[in-house]
């Protein structure tokens, strides 16, 4: 009897341990992939920038987005670079960086442009293996601390608990919660006394234009500078494309045709910067007025306009006439090098692609974007996870789920203008690439002209164009120039100690 009881007890004990073992390991399979709303990891480093040793620390972390009930509705993941040999941070600028989409992470300017680390790419901006990052001796960390922010559902940022998409996904929704988050970040990091700058790329220019106004009006955070990189209209363009907005693209067509050697020889033999002034004048003074008149234009004038558009775009006169004088972007990207069986990129028309068929009215894909995703995605994952030690099972969303995006009441240009009117210290730098077919140079200028229709702010708005595409930094020469221009902009706009800020 005792032997039977002992055997039964042993069997029961083994069964119990087995069940307990299952209870212990099962949750690891059932858990969702999440990050705490408030966590960070910090490492220390050093880099040489323009011959000067710059020690710094990098913090990769998350901070919550609080709902009305005081609970975290989402977490926003950031990477914060702080120079560590600065004793007094009250004169040390801080720059907060956003990319665009909407719905894309901060990896582009983070590893392509301004930070002390840059992804490994070929000299002409194409992916190379092995992937990874290297020191960026042209970073602007020597003159400003840097924060790269991933808005909700980009990078490692995510919605929590009862948070709803409609809280975050829209022009004004995005601005409102990010303004609250910036307020929290500045408080946590003790940077209220520091000169403050925002930089945004692509849709990020919409974001930072609106944030300049929101931070000032709702949080009493007065900025010293806003940098628009690849500006996309800042709410000053019609919500839908029109024949007039398409006509503004002609100087971009000229730039792209010049790069691919498709212009008539007398134009091709000149530098691009020599050609563009006459193309801009033609576009504003003759082309747009002609397009505005639509079908009422007489045939002789229509023919003359078509000839000039063809001359400046590298297209045939008949192709221009077939499109009633206004060739859509997609048709241009498909047509310009059709005889070579190549398409050209949207965001950077120096990149070439191939399609299944030579026929058709648009490319099958964006050649430049495929190349960039191939370069940037391995680099950001390797850098954050392996070099900086930020451990998570979450996917880094290069392009995250943020749709539908509410575009109603987009008045960010007015918000930026009002902020500049009320704050004499606020300056704007606009950087734009000639080969950018999504956010072209003349359209970006047009948006700023409309924003400052009185001309009273023009002395505080600086516009610089580059022989580059949307991401002006993918090739080394323009990356260096762009960073130097930002560096000079910061040095020229940081208020002098004791200087009154007034008109």
What topology does this entry show?
Layout: H1 2-30, E1 39-49, E2 52-66, E3 72-83, E4 94-98, H2 107-114, E5 117-119, E6 133-135, E7 145-150, E8 158-159, H3 171-189, E9 196-201, H4 203-219, E10 225-229, H5 243-247, H6 250-259, H7 265-268, H8 272-292, H9 299-313, H10 317-322, H11 329-335, E11 343-344, E12 352-353, H12 367-387, H13 412-422, E13 427-433, H14 441-451, E14 461-466, H15 476-493
Parallel strand pairs: 4-7, 4-9, 9-10, 10-13, 13-14
Antiparallel strand pairs: 1-2, 2-3, 3-7, 3-8, 5-6, 11-12
Helix pairs in contact: 2-12, 3-4, 4-13, 6-8, 8-9
Walkthrough of the structure:
With 503 residues, this protein is α/β, with parallel strands linked by helices. The chain folds into two domains: 39-238 and 375-493, Alpha/Beta hydrolase fold, catalytic domain (Rossmann fold), CATH 3.40.50; 243-366, no CATH class. The protein has 15 helices and 14 strands. It has helices at residues 2-30, 107-114, 171-189, 203-219, 243-247, 250-259, 265-268, 272-292, 299-313, 317-322, 329-335, 367-387, 412-422, 441-451, 476-493, and strands spanning 39-49, 52-66, 72-83, 94-98, 117-119, 133-135, 145-150, 158-159, 196-201, 225-229, 343-344, 352-353, 427-433, 461-466. The strands form three sheets. Strands 1, 2, 3, 4, 7, 8, 9, 10, 13 and 14 form a ten-stranded mixed β-sheet that branches. A two-stranded antiparallel ribbon has the order 5-6. A two-stranded antiparallel sheet has the order 11-12. α2 packs across α12. The protein is globular, with a radius of gyration of 26 Å. The termini are far apart. Residues 1-31 have low confidence and may be disordered.
């Amino acid at each position: 009897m005792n032997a039977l009881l002992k055997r039964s007890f042993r069997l029961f004990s083994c069964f119990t341990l087995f069940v307990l073992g299952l209870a212990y390991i099962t949750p690891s399979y059932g858990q969702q992939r999440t990050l705490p709303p408030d966590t960070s990891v910090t490492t220390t480093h050093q880099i040489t920038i323009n011959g000067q040793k710059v020690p710094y620390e990098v913090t990769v972390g998350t901070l919550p987005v609080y709902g009305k009930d005081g609970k975290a509705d989402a977490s926003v993941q950031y990477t914060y670079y702080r120079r560590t040999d600065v004793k007094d941070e009250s004169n040390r600028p801080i720059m907060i960086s956003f990319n665009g989409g909407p719905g894309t992470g901060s990896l582009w300017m983070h590893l392509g442009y301004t930070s002390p680390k840059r992804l490994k790419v070929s000299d002409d901006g194409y992916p190379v293996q092995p992937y990874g990052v290297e020191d960026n001796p042209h970073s602007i960390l020597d003159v400003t601390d840097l924060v790269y922010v991933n808005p909700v559902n980009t990078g490692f940022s995510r919605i929590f608990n009862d948070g709803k998409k409609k809280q975050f996904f829209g022009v004004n929704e995005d601005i409102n919660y990010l303004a609250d988050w910036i307020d929290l970040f500045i408080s946590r990091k003790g940077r209220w006394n520091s000169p403050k700058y925002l930089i945004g790329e692509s849709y990020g220019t919409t974001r930072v234009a609106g944030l300049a106004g929101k931070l000032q009006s709702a949080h009493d955070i007065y900025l010293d500078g806003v940098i628009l990189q690849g500006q996309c209209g800042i709410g000053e363009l019609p919500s839908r494309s029109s024949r007039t907005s398409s006509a503004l693209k002609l100087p971009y067509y000229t730039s792209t045709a010049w790069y691919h050697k498709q212009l008539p020889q007398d134009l091709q033999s000149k530098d691009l910067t020599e050609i563009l002034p006459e193309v801009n004048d033609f576009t504003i003074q003759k082309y747009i007025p002609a397009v505005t008149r639509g079908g009422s234009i007489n045939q002789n004038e229509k023919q003359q306009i078509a000839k000039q558009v063809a001359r400046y775009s590298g297209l045939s006169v008949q192709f221009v006439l077939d499109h009633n004088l206004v060739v859509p972007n997609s048709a241009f990207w498909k047509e310009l090098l059709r005889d070579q069986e190549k398409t050209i990129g949207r965001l950077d028309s120096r990149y070439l692609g191939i399609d299944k068929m030579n026929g058709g009215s648009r490319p099958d894909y964006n050649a430049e974007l495929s190349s960039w995703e191939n370069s940037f995605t391995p680099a950001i994952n390797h850098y954050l996870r392996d070099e900086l030690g930020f451990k998570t099972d979450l996917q880094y969303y290069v392009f995250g789920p943020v749709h539908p995006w509410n575009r109603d009441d987009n008045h960010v240009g007015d918000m930026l203008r009002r902020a500049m009117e009320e704050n004499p210290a606020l300056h704007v730098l606009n950087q734009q690439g000639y080969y950018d077919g999504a956010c072209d140079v003349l359209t970006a200028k047009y948006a700023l002209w409309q924003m400052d229709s009185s001309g009273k702010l023009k002395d505080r708005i600086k516009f610089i164009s580059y022989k580059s595409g949307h991401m002006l930094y993918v090739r080394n020469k323009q990356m260096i120039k762009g960073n130097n221009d930002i560096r000079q902009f910061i040095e020229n706009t940081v208020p002098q100690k004791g200087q009154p800020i007034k008109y």
